[in-house]
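Whiteboard transcription, Tuesday session. T.W. wrote the structure tokens on the left side:
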């Protein structure tokens, strides 16, 4: 279980480091599907002053930039954090649990 969490974190760290290139591929696929469904991918209206949620500042109205910064990167970082907290932070506890402790002779 711990080794699977470690491998997952390494893969996600690599994805996070190469998010520009990887998201570009994902977004092209999303655009292809949107064209098939006759749907336009656009950036929602951005307010100049925001109080209750993040207002991502991007250099253009490019939907790819907006969704990479507002959705993809925070999701990857949250997923890495959750894996660390749920598995790796408690790996000593997992190591102490052994099936042999529960088998009666």
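and on the right, the sequence the group agreed on:
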């Amino acid at each position: 279980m711990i080794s699977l969490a470690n491998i997952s974190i390494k893969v996600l760290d690599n994805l996070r480091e190469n998010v520009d290139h990887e998201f570009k591929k994902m977004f092209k696929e999303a655009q292809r599907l949107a064209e098939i469904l006759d749907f336009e991918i656009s950036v929602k209206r951005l307010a100049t002053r925001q109080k209750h949620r993040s207002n991502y500042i991007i250099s253009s109205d490019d939907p790819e930039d907006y969704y990479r910064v507002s959705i993809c990167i925070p999701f990857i970082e949250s997923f890495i954090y959750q894996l660390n907290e749920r598995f790796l932070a408690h790996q000593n506890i997992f190591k102490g649990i052994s099936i042999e402790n529960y088998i009666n002779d």
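Someone added at the bottom: DSSP finds four helices and no strands in the chain.
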